[in-house]
Amino acid sequence: MSMKEVRFGDVSVQLGQHIGLVEIHRPPHNYFDRHLVENLADAFASFEGEPDCRAVVLCSEGKSFCAGANFSRQASESGAEAALGSSTSHLYKQAVRLFEFGKPIVAAIQGAAIGGGLGLALMADFRVVSPEARFAANFVKLGIHPGFGLTYTLPRLIGIQRASLLFYTGRRIGGQQAVEWGLGDVLADAETLRDVATKLAAEIAECAPLAVQSTRATLRRDVAAAVKAQTDRELSEQLRLMQTEDHKEGVRAVAERRAGRFKGR
């Protein structure tokens, strides 16, 4: 079975050769807000009950994979507040839906995966990355707490020491270092990135789908619940820290590409 392209807002889905394709269309940087993450959750849900879909490739159009929330946006609310939404409809409820998806996901990461965009990348089972890819949990540079479940997923993937280093410094690492650390799984040239990701998804799709999904469910059986608990705390801390002077200074500093002049208040 093949499926023509279907759109969920700025997200498209297609299906062919047992592989689903989910693509984000907000180039060049694919900044997210709660609407985009809800579109992504709906897109993945469309494959949940489709027996012909055995694995999914997640990719995006443009220079960045997902550069997180657009903190530099000129609006009445900050980029963080616009992305997170109200406490009753916040982005992390949609993020938990993504972690509840029951089939293997291979992410193709061609550029920056920053902040919540890194969180989105870690929702996938595997990451095929280009040398130009950049990964950062830059929240402390913005004066806020990490989010999108990263305080659970990142240490689980690369260990508490390396995760702490990325969290406390906000530093970026490139594609090759990401693979060396286990943050990425396969390094591929930008030109062949999607083909390599699709080949990995096809290798998974060749196997017995019920057995693959059963194995995945065992390996990840506590992940969605853990992400739910962790994002509840992350959101609480983010909302608290968004009220500080340091957060306002962090947003200005990042927009102006300079070090923040923080005062601890």
Task: Kindly describe this structure.
- With 265 residues, this protein is α/β, with parallel strands linked by helices.
- The protein has one domain (3-255): 2-enoyl-CoA Hydratase, Chain A, domain 1 (Alpha-Beta Complex), CATH 3.90.226.
- The chain is 45% helix and 17% strand.
- It contains 11 helices and 10 strands.
- The strands form 2 sheets. A 7-stranded mixed beta sheet has the order 1-2-3-4-5-7-10, sandwiched between helices. A 3-stranded mixed beta sheet has the order 6-8-9.
- β1 and β2 form a beta hairpin.
- α4 crosses α5, α5 crosses α6 (160-169) and α5 (150-158) crosses α10 (223-241).
- It is globular, with a radius of gyration of 18 Å.
Defining key terms:
single chain; alpha/beta; three-stranded mixed β-sheet; 265 residues; globular; 11 helices
> What's the overall average pLDDT, rounded?
93
CATH uppermost class: Alpha Beta
Kindly state the number of beta strands. 10
| Outline | globular
Give me the number of helical elements: 11
Unreliable spans are none
Distance between the termini: 57 Å
Helix content: 40-55%
Query: Which series of helices and strands comes N to C?
Result: EEEHEHHEEHEEHHEHEHHHH
